[in-house]
Design goal:
With 272 residues, the protein is of the alpha/beta class. It is 38% helix and 19% strand. The chain folds into 2 domains: 15-82, Rossmann fold (3-Layer(aba) Sandwich); 105-251, Dihydrodipicolinate Reductase, domain 2, CATH 3.30.360.10. It has 10 helices and 9 strands. A 6-stranded mixed β-sheet has the order 5-7-6-4-8-9. It has a 3-stranded parallel β-sheet with strand order 1-2-3, with helices on both faces. The chain is globular.
């Protein structure tokens, strides 16, 4: 099993040297998201699989930029490449579909970014955009640099990951129509809530005869839609399949441990 380096151990910045020195059976990869290339996470995971270790990641980048290569490499090495924490924390989205053989996913929609959800709610309550962002940061929901959330990149990468894995359709980020919430004014957000059609940052994907059409953008949602009731740090996704017309998963205000749980659950799957 994984070994922890002591004070007298030789340390190396090279993942291959580390894997060899640690005699690692499993690599937990949790570097920051690189939207443009998915690196260095892809190299870390590739190195682990080539070494003969299972690879578990919470990083969405490798799914979008290297999924098929890493999946095939894991299969060839008879190891597991698992990534349940990449979307909706540790909610078992990917393993859920493992339990639904020969199901074909036709489309999905949902709310997958909690930071924008919190900001929009605080704006509805009367705060300005900057104040709402600071509130989300004080709650530990938004990072110091929340650009990826505000401009829709986080939700777009998650959408691409779901399309790539669950629909088995490679998609480039630039193929997904993306619009964040930065341009929304407090007045517009409060007026939308008052009219019974609050703004939410919605992810959508739909299979068509021309491929998959996907978008991430602010939309006004009627109060009768379940997405209108998704508040705070909660997330929601609705799947349309050929057998089941609608399957929905809701995550209610997860704690800070949820992502760690997803990686722990992947660890259990890998070694079971």
């Amino acid at each position: 099993m994984d070994r922890t380096f002591g004070e007298n151990d030789t340390k190396s910045a090279d993942v291959h040297d580390w894997l060899k020195a640690a005699r690692a059976d499993i690599l937990f990869e949790a570097t920051s998201l690189n939207v443009e290339s998915g690196q260095p996470a892809i190299d870390h995971i590739r190195g682990a699989l080539n070494h003969g270790a299972h690879a578990i990641t919470a990083n969405k980048g490798p799914i979008v930029h290297g999924y098929r290569e890493l999946r095939d490499l894991a299969g060839a090495r008879r190891k597991r490449f698992l990534f349940e924490s990449t979307v909706m924390d540790g909610v078992p989205i990917f393993s859920f579909f493992d339990q639904l053989p020969v199901i074909h996913l036709r489309g999905f929609h949902g709310i997958l970014n909690s930071t924008t959800n919190v900001i929009l709610r605080e704006m509805e309550n009367g705060l300005g955009f900057d104040e709402s962002l600071k509130k989300a940061q004080s709650l530990g929901i938004a990072e110091t640099d929340a650009t990826h959330d505000i401009d829709g990149w986080d939700a777009t990468v998650k959408t691409a990951a779901l399309i790539t894995v669950l629909m088995d359709v490679p998609v480039r980020l630039e193929e997904i129509e993306r619009e964040g919430i930065r341009a929304l004014s407090g007045e517009a957000v409060r007026a939308a809530r008052k009219d019974g059609r609050p703004y939410k940052l919605i992810c959508r994907a739909q299979k068509t005869e021309h491929g998959v059409m996907a978008s991430v953008r602010p939309e006004q949602i009627p109060l009768t839609d379940p997405m209108a009731r998704i508040d705070g740090a909660s997330s929601y996704i609705y799947f349309e399949t050929d057998i089941f017309p609608g399957l929905a998963l809701t995550e209610e205000n997860p704690g800070l441990y949820a992502t760690a749980y997803g990686m722990l659950a992947d660890f259990v799957r890998a070694v079971s």
